[in-house]
């Protein structure tokens, strides 16, 4: 998937009817973090640790069920979060609509 396609997926999830080419979710924290916050309003958790980033939900006894998990090897933090956001939106569109 290209960056433009990924940014379009995010923009549609955020409710934008017209997608502009100047949306830089992949490189702008000020654009990307509201997406993470919107996902959390849907009752999913965002977790970051030294090796993984992803979204999921807590199950019984505090066990975490990863729905989307990105291995952080050799990519930047913002790229890891961007990738996790796109994968989560794709999962959400297939499973929750």
Question: Would you kindly provide a written description of the structure presented here, covering whatever features stand out?
Answer:
It is a single chain. This protein has 97 residues and is α+β, with helices and mostly antiparallel strands. The protein has one domain (3-95). Helices cover 44% and strands 20% of the residues. Strands 1-2-3 form a three-stranded antiparallel sheet. The protein is globular. The mean pLDDT is 87.
| Structural class category | alpha+beta
Largest sheet: 3 strands, antiparallel
Instruction: Give the overall shape, derived from the CA principal axes.
Output: globular
Low-confidence stretches: none
Q: Number of DSSP helices?
A: 3
Walk across the major sheet and give the strand order.
1-2-3
- Could you tell me the number of beta strands? 3
The figure for the number of domains is 1
Order of helices and strands: HHEEEH
Identify the notable features of this structure and list them briefly.
about 100 residues; alpha+beta; about 45% helix
Could you give a quick summary of the protein structure above?
Helix content is 44%, strand content 20%.
């Amino acid at each position: 998937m290209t960056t433009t396609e990924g940014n379009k997926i995010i923009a549609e999830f955020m409710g934008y009817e017209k997608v502009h080419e100047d949306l830089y979710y992949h490189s702008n924290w000020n654009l990307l973090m509201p997406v993470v916050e919107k996902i959390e309003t849907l009752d999913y958790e965002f977790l970051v640790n030294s090796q993984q980033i992803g979204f999921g939900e807590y199950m019984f006894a505090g066990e975490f069920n990863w729905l989307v998990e990105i291995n952080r090897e050799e990519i930047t933090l913002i790229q890891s979060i961007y990738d996790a956001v796109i994968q989560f939106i794709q999962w959400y569109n297939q499973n929750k609509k």
